[in-house]
Design goal:
The complex is a heterodimer of chains A (about 260) and B (about 325).
Chain A (H helix, E strand, L loop, with lengths): L1 E8 L3 H9 L2 H13 L4 E5 L7 H14 L4 E3 L4 H7 L8 E5 L3 H14 L2 E5 L10 H17 L7 E4 L11 H12 L8 E2 L13 H14 L4 E4 L4 H13 L9 H6 L1
Helix pairs in contact in A: 1-2, 2-3, 3-4, 6-7, 8-9
Chain B lengths: L16 E3 L13 E3 L19 E7 L7 H7 L6 H12 L3 E5 L12 H14 L4 E4 L4 H14 L6 E5 L5 H10 L2 E6 L3 H13 L7 E5 L8 H17 L8 E4 H5 L3 H4 L11 H19 L3 E4 L2 H14 L1
Parallel strand pairs in B: 3-4, 3-10, 4-5, 5-6, 6-7, 7-8, 8-9, 9-10
Antiparallel strand pairs in B: 1-2
Helix pairs in contact in B: 2-3, 3-4, 4-5, 7-10, 10-11
């Protein structure tokens, strides 16, 4: 499983204040904490705090000063990405593009040039899909485009678009179905990722719902996830699901070993 | 749009483990060996890097093992003296390391004392200039006495010392750390325990880059396929990014093959099986060749003919 830590996001008050006050320590601490918990990538999200590329670059700098993990750049704005991608020490993951041609044609050349990876959302400007078929169609469009730009399936992370369970209960089944189909696009397959916490938006049992849905997604082929990597129960459930699928080799101390 | 590249590409490389230390490195070895370092499966040189060839270590013991005459005669009278046996292995059989087993330390054999074993290690270090792999007799309590003395006698020589198991690893970790040796992590034909031993060694403060993994080797006909699949699965896991499984792997071919009837009983009893003189070494060679395909990096071998065949296999395939 590729764990993408979600905590360096100005949606969290402490991070927002850190960006406004240029207080690097908060960001560094958050980065270190997520690395210790087993993160493979750290998502960096400037959000609505600023539209200046230099602010996003400053956040990335703080993270890279603290840890050696690759960055997931949480922006779909080409101007931002043009500044941020080259300053990443390791090939970053761009989070994200929709299936719209104008978006893909703007972002994919950057991905190809820098050997980066990209999250492709199975949706377009008109909105989020409601069915498995619509998701597969959008994902197929993205997949065809990456081939045009000589981007390999390993550089693509398809996102089936997770919807809140509380408000769109019928969608969970469609998301799982789409995930299973994405696996079949190519061999070796592309990665399949999601922003997990969307599933529990507005609920009173966020952690339990995240954990349960994560295990179901893993069973359907999810191999990357944007999550709170410091939620130990969640990470442990995912590690255990991968054992049950025989994706990793069991050892009595597999939980401890993950964090050592 | 180009033709897609269908070559397998792996995330991780297998750890490189060097055994032996030259004068510049604080030892006295003329040569060292390096295991591992691959970025793909055995012999698939078109797919990735295979920087180090598999290595054959010659089997030596301080007492003559319970082996058939076919093997003892092929080795010659030198089998009666570990120093001479080791020299013959290096000079005539062309092995790149010596695998020394102190079978005589067990009470049932010679009850050889740790100090006597240490003296033999000193003798070996003077007699041959290749790296040493050192084992006790296989009985934990005795080995926990013998191995510290042997380790001390070879301090700084960067030997490979066997073996750490799930229930007995602390002594050997301590001596390997103190005397700067590499360690064998052993599991009883069980990939899960294999991984667990590596976790325990890591928790005990050992860098996994100091470890060579051993799944108790099975002779051909006695669970060969179990061990083969374990070696292969461990190697694939290591290449896929499971750092706990990314260690080079060892097989004790000579130590296992010559215990079974197919390699030790002649055709007067095994009617129709063919002459033992030919069958025995072939059994050892075929077993070794199979494990090479599965992902073995270090083979312990005994019969000079089998050694020759596998040397040729290694050189032709890589």
């Amino acid at each position: 499983m590729i764990f993408i830590g979600e905590r360096i996001n100005t949606g969290f008050k402490a991070i927002k204040e850190a960006v406004i006050n240029r207080d690097g320590d908060v960001i560094k601490e958050t980065a270190i904490k997520q690395k210790k918990a087993g993160a493979d990538y750290l998502d960096v999200n400037l959000g609505a705090v600023s539209a200046k590329p230099e602010d996003l670059c400053w956040m990335i700098e703080q993270v890279q000063d603290a840890v050696d993990l690759p960055i997931s750049i949480d922006s779909n704005k080409v101007l931002m990405l043009k500044e941020a991608i080259p300053m990443c020490k390791k090939p970053p993951l761009v989070n994200s593009t929709t299936a719209d041609d104008f978006k893909l044609d703007a972002i994919l050349p950057l991905i190809a040039e820098h050997k980066a990876s990209v999250i492709g959302l199975a949706m377009d400007e008109s909105g989020s899909p409601k069915t498995v078929d619509a998701r597969v169609e959008f994902a197929g469009q993205i997949f065809a485009k990456i081939m045009e730009y000589d981007i390999t399936p390993e550089q693509l992370f398809l996102d089936p678009i997770v919807m809140p369970l509380k408000f769109m209960q019928d969608q969970a089944k469609e998301i799982l179905g789409a995930t299973a189909q994405f696996r079949l696009f190519s061999d070796p397959p592309c990665h399949i990722v999601c922003g997990l916490s969307n599933i529990s938006n507005g609920t009173t049992q966020k952690k339990l719902i995240n954990r349960t849905f994560a295990v179901m997604l893993v069973a359907n082929g999810l191999d990357a996830v944007i999550l709170d990597v410091n939620d130990e129960d969640l990470v442990n459930a995912i590690l255990t699901a991968e054992l049950a699928l025989n994706k990793s080799i069991y050892a009595d101390s597999y939980i401890d070993a993950f964090r050592s | 749009m180009g033709i897609p590249n269908l070559k397998e590409s792996w995330k991780n490389t297998i750890n490189e483990v060097t055994i032996g230390a030259t004068k510049e490195e604080g030892g006295t070895r003329g040569k060292t060996i390096t295991l591992g370092g691959q970025s793909t499966l055995p012999f698939l040189s078109f797919e990735g890097d295979l920087p180090n060839k598999p290595v054959i270590a010659g089997y030596v013991a301080d007492v003559v093992p319970d082996w058939p005459d076919v093997l003892k005669n092929a080795i010659g009278k030198e089998i009666n003296d570990p120093i001479e046996w080791a020299q013959k292995n290096v000079e005539e059989f062309g092995v790149e390391a010596i695998n020394m087993r102190f079978l005589g330390a067990s009470e049932a054999a010679k009850n050889r004392s740790p100090d006597e074993c240490g003296k033999i290690v000193e003798g070996l270090l003077k007699a041959v200039d290749v790296p040493l792999i050192l084992w006790g007799c296989g009985q934990e309590e005795i080995d926990n006495e013998v191995l510290p003395v042997c380790s001390q006698a070879a301090r700084g020589e960067n030997c490979l010392i066997g073996s750490a198991t799930e229930t007995n690893y602390q002594t050997i970790v301590a001596i390997c750390k103190a005397d700067k040796h590499k360690i064998i992590a052993e599991a009883p034909v069980d990939i899960n325990i294999g991984k667990q031993v590596n976790i325990l060694l890591q928790d005990a403060g050992l860098d996994l880059k100091e470890v060579v993994m051993l799944q108790t080797t099975a002779a051909l006909g006695y669970g060969f396929d179990y061990v083969y699949t374990i070696l292969e699965r461990a190697r694939i896991a290591g290449l896929q990014g499971d750092k706990l499984m990314a260690s080079p792997q060892l097989c004790d071919i000579g130590g296992e093959v010559w215990r079974i009837k197919e390699a030790s009983v002649d055709e007067d009893i095994l009617t129709g099986w063919g002459a033992l003189e030919k069958r025995g070494p072939m059994w050892e060679a075929v077993c070794a060749g199979g494990y090479l395909q599965a992902g073995a990096d270090l083979l312990i071998m005994a019969h000079p003919k089998a050694i020759k065949i596998i040397q040729s296999t290694i050189n032709n395939l890589q």
